[in-house]
Amino acid sequence: MLGPVILAASRSDKMRRFVSAAPGTKQVVARFIAGEGLDQVIPIVEETAAKGLEVTLDVVGEDITTPEQSYAARDAYLVLIERLKELGLGTKAEMSVKLSMFGQALEGGHELALANIRPVVEAAAAIGTTVTLDAEDHTTLDSMFAIHEELRKDFPQTGCVIQAYLFRTEDDARRLAEAGSRVRIVKGAYKEPAEVAYQDKAEIDKAYVRILKILMDGDGYPMIGSHDPRLIAITQELARRAGRKPADYEFQMLYGIRSEEQLRLAAEGHRMRVYTAYGTDWYGYFMRRLAEKPANLLFFARSILTKG
Asked: Does residue 134 sit in helix, strand or coil?
C-alpha cells in the first residue's frame, strides 16, 4: 500500500526538499494548488462562481513552530476575507481552516488557536460567509470539536469536518447532526493507527455510508466531500429517502479533480463547492492528495520522468 508510505513522507523534511526540487513538481502542484497568493487565486474564485459553483478556500500551511507564525496565518485569512468583501464574493466563498496552522500544537495551543480563529470567524460572518474547521489527525480532534462548540455559541453557522475512517466518527456524527450544524464528511487523509481507524478501503466506504445516513436523517446540513461516483449516487438516494431537497445539502470536491462532474452536479441543481487551496507552504497538502489516489501519484511520476 503506497498511501501510508506517502503520508509518512508528508512529514519528512528530506522528502520535502526532494519533491520541491523535482523537475516536474511545479506542473503537478498546479493541478491541486490554485496559486501561491491572492492575485492568483481570486480570478479562480471569480471564474468558479461564474460557472455556478461555490468555493471553500484553504490557505495551506500546517507545521508552524512559533506563535508569530500562527498570527501570520490568522492575518492571511483576514486579508482574504477583506478581498472577498471588496469583490462582493462573500456569498460564493467560505473558508476552511486547519487549527494546527493557528497554533493548536504549541504550548497553550488550544487557547491560542481559539483566540486566533475567533476574529476570522467574526470577519467571515460580517461578509455573509462561514468558516469550516478541518479535521486533522485523531490526536487533535477533541480540541477541534471543543473550539467548534465554543465558536458556535456566537456563530452557529461555523462548520466542522468528520472523517469516516475513524472508529469514533459515528458517535461524533450523531452528536453533530443537530439543527443549524454544518458538517463535512470525508474519508480521511492522515496516517492513523489500526487502534483508532479502519485500514481497509471497503470498511472505510461502509463507515462513510453509515455516517452519511446519520447526517441525512439528522437536522443539520451535510457537506459531502467525495469524488467517488458510487458515494455520490448513494448520497442522492439517502437524501431522497430523508426528504431532503438539493438546497438541504451540498457536494464538495477538490480543485483540479473531476471538474466535469462538478459542473454536471451543479447543472442538475445541486450545490457544488470546490475546495481550493493556495499558498506557498503546499507540501503537506500536496502529498495527501497523492496518497488519496494512485492515479495522482502516477501522474506525478510521469511528470518527473518527462521533465528530467
From this structure: coil
Q: What is the mean pLDDT of residues 291-306?
A: 52
Residue 195 CA to residue 281 CA, distance in Å, equals: 31
pLDDT in tens, 112-161: 999 999 999 999 999 999 999 999 999 999 999 999 999 999 999 999 99
Q: Find the helix or strand (DSSP H, E) in which 208 lies.
A: helix 201-217
Angle at the Cα of 272 from the Cα atoms of 266 and 276, rounded to 5 degrees: 130
**Contact yes or no for 89/276 (Cβ under 8 A):** no
Catalytic residues: 134, 184
Q: From residue 300, how far is each of 14, 62, 200, 287 by CA, in Å?
A: 18, 22, 25, 10
Q: Mean per-residue pLDDT for 214-230?
A: 97
Q: What is the DSSP letter of 33?
A: B
Half-sphere exposure of 97 (CA within 13 A, CB side): 35
Beta bridge partners of 271: 250
Q: Taking a C-beta distance cutoff of 8 angstroms, is the pair 276, 44 a contact? A: yes
- CA-to-CA distance for 277 and 254, rounded, in angstroms? 9
Cell of 88: 462582493
Share of the chain above pLDDT 70, in %: 81
Measured at the alpha carbon of residue 233, what is the angle toward residues 230 and 239, in degrees to the nearest 5?
A: 140
Evaluate whether 97 touches 131 at the Cβ level (below 8 Å).
yes
